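ligand=NDP
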Amino acid sequence: MANKQAEQYIKEFMDNIIAKNPNEKEFHQAVYEVVESLAPYIVENSALMKMKVLERIAEPERVIMFRVPWVDDKGEIQINKGYRVQMNSAIGPYKGGLRFHSSVNLSILKFLAFEQVFKNSLTTLPMGGGKGGSDFNPKGKSDNEVMRFCQSFMTEFQRHIGQDTDVPAGDIGVGGREIGFMYGQYKRLRNEFTGTLTGKGLGWGGSPLRPEATGYGTCYFAQEMLATKGDSFAGKVVTISGSGNVAQYATEKATQLGAKVVTLSDSAGYIYDPDGIDADKLAYVFELKNVLRGRIKEYADRYPNAKYFPGERPWDVKCDIALPCATQNELNEEEAKTLVANGCICVAEGANMPSTPEAIAVFQNAKILYAPGKASNAGGVATSGLEMTQNSIRLSWTPDEVDAKLNSIMKDIHAACIKYGTEADGYVNYVKGANIAGFLKVANAMLAQGCV
Ligand code: NDP
């Protein structure tokens, strides 16, 4: 009976979401994953049903869209779209990254903002959920062009954010350089030095370990998962996708924990290094990607034992642990089957929603360890939360202090997943665990705050 009711609830919920948000397939996908986990719980709780809590969570509190005009190096006017989805502020100011990528649209930002609500709640810190960005593509742009774009973006955006209102951070295409340009313009327009953006530089309000946090946190979470099987990273072969911020620091931490990372990628292809990407090679990747802003294929030019596979993704490389750290829907059903057939025992997502629903089903049916990004990559936003705290108390913690707090938050998130996600046969469904644990805190706050 309860099952039938839950199925009916899911159907009506999704029909409504699709009718109200047509053509937003990434948003539908993210909502479906959550509703599927929560429906059995919600239909048994009349207050949640009556107060339409999940229905309200799935409708952004506010969506801001604006024009971002700027002048390129040739003197030509360029026009991009700017967005901020302020999804939910029940437990704290909106918090979530800005993405600059040509693929950015409302569907992608709504999926990211929706996920962020649950992720931020899981961190145990007081942060609501939001996400924003632009269809601006920083690739191939000069530093001056990026600066002019960031200044124009912030000229409008500054009216919608603030340390107690909405605190953006980085995401794809937004790293230290972009946060610097945006923070400079914010400060100039508002005449105040506050913690309104996170991911700031160390000398001007940033937190130690914020750049490392998402990648490190993903490995700390995977470490907890492996420990449930009495296992660890030591001696394991790890495949990683992406070569940006999250991938770089996931590589660093996995290597420090005794594993051998053999792949990195970008949107054009992947490299396979059978000898492993050790600390020296990783230092080259940092230089290549963050300073020279080059492509991952150049890695194979420099290290002859490595091979570059254009147009391909790294999931057919045999591994024990896979850490997808690039983008959404980058690991499909076939690739998931290959990973399982090759003996992969653990998949922890550094990216947001990198595995398709079909891929997740493959992992769960095979009963391998699988963690969704909203749990395993929450270390980034958690450390942003720690940056906000340091800004508020006007003190800085040491890298060791922040690392210890990050590690402890990841352990707590893992424990919450175990608490709410352990099934009758003992298998831990981390998707269910993360969704229920993340939902409860937000739902209770919304119930207390009435129909707003
Ligand atoms: P970066 O911009 O630093 O790096 C992104 C990487 O992903 C690049 O290697 C990029 O390659 C690759 N990539 C981007 N789009 C695609 C695509 N369509 N197909 C294949 N590869 C692609 O971003 P981050 O490392 O910060 O973010 C990576 C993921 O982690 C995202 O899903 C993000 O939402 C998530 N995340 C990030 C957090 C953070 O703190 N930065 C926090 C939590 C999650 P290319 O250069 O070719 O585009």
